[in-house]
Amino acid sequence: MSALMEAVRAGRTAEVVGLLDELTDAERRAAFPELKALRKELRAAPWDAASRRAYPALYAAGVACQTGAAAVASWIAAADMRWSGTSAALLLRLLGDRSPEWLADLTHRLAQRPAASGVPYELMSGLVRLSGCPVPTTDAYVRGWMGHVGWAWQRGGTLLDRMRQDPHLKELVAALFETNDIGGLLEWPRGDGPDSWAGALSGLAAERLVEREVMVDACVARLLRGGTTTEQRFFLRLLKGLDLTGDEERQRRADWLALACDAVSPVAAHAQAVLSALALDGELSSRRLAEMSSAVLFRTEKKLVRAQLVLLGKVLARNAGAAEELLPVVARAFGHEDSDVQERALKLVERHLKKADGTEVRGEIAAEAENLIPGLRVRAVHLLGTAAVSAVPAPYEEVLPPVPLPTRLEPAPASAAEVAEEVGAAMETEPGVAGFERPLDGLVRHAYHDREALVEALGPVLARRWWHDAESGLRYQSRFGRSDFAVSDAEDGLDLLLAALLGKVELGTLHAVVQHGSTPRECGHSALSRAFAARLWEVAYRLRTDPLPFLLSTPTWSTGLLEPDELVDRLAEYRRLGARVSAADFAQALLRVRRADRPAAGRAAERAAALGTREGARLADWLVAPDDAQPATRRRISGSRILLECDELPQLQRDFPEQYRHLGRPVGVFTDRWYCHHWNDDARQHWLAVLPERRELVAVRLLRDLSALAVDDDRGAAVLPQLAESGGEAGEAVHLGLAYGLGARHAEDRLASVDALLTLAARGQLDPARLGADLGQLVRRGAVKPLRLAESARTAAATGADATVWETLRHTLPLLLADFATGGAGASARGLGELLAVAAESAERCGARGEIPHLAQTADRRGSSRIVAQARRLRSALTWEIAA
């Protein structure tokens, strides 16, 4: 056996095969354990030279030295053997002396493997030939066959030529229609000639090499199974290429009906076209047409709906007797979301109602007419009578979500084990403000009371950290030296405290950061990032030098707000313990303390002043100080963006540590570097918790990021609902950021923006005029696309907030209609019709009245474009009482 193993290690495959030929079955089985051991050895370094040299010979020897079909199949399909490069011909030679039954078993075991296993088709087909077994029709085998005949250009001829020569053609072609997720592969190569799959399969059917009727049935069955548009496109193209006769189409009426109702749009359109031809030829009964129409008229594709109404109109014009059966179906389109569809349906009813004399039919139509928009409902009243249709819509009531309430933080964990559990959870997920502040306070408390017990409890958490076994631990990059660590988010902050607790951060590094700050390079977010990090670096420093008994700045509420009485109680406990207050911790507490409730703040100020400490006096002055005025802002243009600059806020410049004074400094658009490492969305909610009653100061620094949602197709609107739930004035920055979010590229971001819109409205903090004007300006500049805005507005209106949506859009539309009326709309005209449609829907539902500048000029224009049609609809809605 030593000669065999030596040849395998040396990669001499030909010699290995010769040695195997000389061995008996028993000797081969005896050699396998050594081969298995070698395989395990090679796995440790699969890509070094020795492994690459040995693998081909090991692969061949392992196939020959095993007797069980299951074991051989596992060896052949193993991931570590996949790149051995051993030819299928060599494996077939090694397996050629096995019995046909054994080879058939191996064939089907290999074919049952996933296609990703990479079992060569040439090996499986060779085993079929040797064993004489039925050809497998599994996913792996069919895909392998496709690759073999589809891309074997070196064998010459077309795809059709190569398929003709296959002895198992019928079985494999039938399997194509049963294999999942294969439609996209069949699209290649493109075209309809004999070198494409569609052309080749059509050619086989034409030559009767495959029964044409079977292929048609398989095509239709595959379409009935459903799937994505990409998956179904090939089978639809093949079905069209088979050119069904009239008899074949008539035999499949039920199939066409099912496809028209439920299939993806291209397939449904084809089925609709077939049924339309049958209906116009009198081959489709009125009952079947009514069944089809009931489903198609409620599809979302307007093209299909309009085509169905056209078909119904043609049938009604030809067959007056079908009116009683078809007109109630037409009337069901009165509830369609598109007013154009409603109007088309009403016109059909108006034109053909006299053909239906039954009162039951008129009653059904009248019941559906209640769903018409107000302007069309007036026409229905004239048609059916006021007794049948109410001309007055039901009273409108705005529906807004309940105002989200913050949650109160639970006390810090009572035991070190609980602290460790919560710290571990916070470092594995995005913990939110509460999920970060509570374990943070727990770390500080337990480090003060029993440091050793805390470190022991944290053992499993520490073992998972990347820095735990590093000799140098965490390092920090500052103007005094280079390193690889900075505090950007909650996970970074907890990492810093844990590393400081274990002595993995040099004391000199901690002291330098506390003295000189933690953000050496300026960007638009630096002020927020500095303030968030400053407290954590100072707490880490105190863990090594003078541990704090607890944090003063732990918030009371999940938004970051701190109740003033709680802060007074904490300062009193510090005085009792004789503990030294951390400057950064106290500064953060001041920024978090709730001052909006002036009576409560005044009472707490009296208690704070009575403490007789410097911090108590500072808190008392802070609580009774006048409300901060918002800094003056200026709009600046940057490309298609509208951004804001703001002046300094003096209240945050005085008596605060240096790292917090940046929060009150001016914000510029062109002076700051905006492209930075603050990419983590999780950090933003903690920035809001730094200033829980001053969200405008956060929003103005996030505005460029929020503009990228619409302008650069970036992600990251999750901060908008958090901004809406935060405290302080919702001013220019909040509304402008929301405007960008409503025009975001990604649907998830638009949905988050709608949540923010509804939250502000529910809290009474939304200024629709300001938001609407911002949206109009952004659409005009090309920063926000009207179609995206229309989708956001429709989503908000669907929740029941039609009045909110209308009040916003009524300030957006005049800017866009002015451009359209003067012929200078440009890009803003694309999608304007859809925006007008949403505005009209909301105005109709909430009963809005009044005038919109430039709306009349737009509605009076000639033509029936969507913009003009929806402008007329909106004008009708706003003047509906007069028209009625």
Give an overview of the whole structure.
It contains 48 helices and two strands. The chain is mainly α and 884 residues long. Among the domains are: 136 residues, no CATH class; 209 residues, no CATH class; 198 residues, no CATH class. 62% of the residues lie in helices and 1% in strands. InterPro entries: DUF7824. This is DUF6493 family protein.
Bin the helical content: 55-70%
Q: Kindly, what is the distance between the CA atoms of the first and last residues, rounded to a whole number of angstroms?
A: 102 Å
Q: Tell me the radius of gyration.
A: 37 Å
Largest sheet: 2 strands, antiparallel
Q: Which strand order does the major sheet show?
A: 1-2
What would the average pLDDT be, to the nearest integer? 90
Which class of secondary structure composition applies to the elements?
mainly alpha
Which blocks of ≥5 consecutive residues have pLDDT under 50? 476-484
InterPro entries: DUF7824
Protein name: DUF6493 family protein
Gist of the model:
This protein has 884 residues and is mostly helical. 62% of the residues lie in helices and 1% in strands. The protein is built from 48 helices and 2 strands.
What descriptors fit this protein?
single chain, 884 residues, mainly alpha, two-stranded antiparallel ribbon, 48 helices, 2 strands, 62% helix, flat
What's the structural blueprint in terms of helices and strands?
Layout: H1 2-10, H2 13-22, H3 25-43, H4 49-64, H5 69-77, H6 88-95, H7 100-111, H8 121-131, H9 139-150, H10 159-164, H11 169-176, H12 183-186, H13 197-206, H14 212-225, H15 229-241, H16 246-251, H17 253-262, H18 265-280, H19 286-296, H20 302-318, H21 323-331, H22 339-352, H23 359-369, H24 374-384, H25 416-428, H26 432-449, H27 451-457, H28 459-462, H29 490-501, H30 507-516, H31 526-545, H32 564-577, H33 583-592, H34 598-610, H35 614-624, E1 633-638, E2 641-646, H36 658-661, H37 682-690, H38 695-711, H39 719-725, H40 732-742, H41 747-762, H42 768-781, H43 786-798, H44 802-821, H45 832-846, H46 855-859, H47 866-878, H48 880-883
Antiparallel strand pairs: 1-2
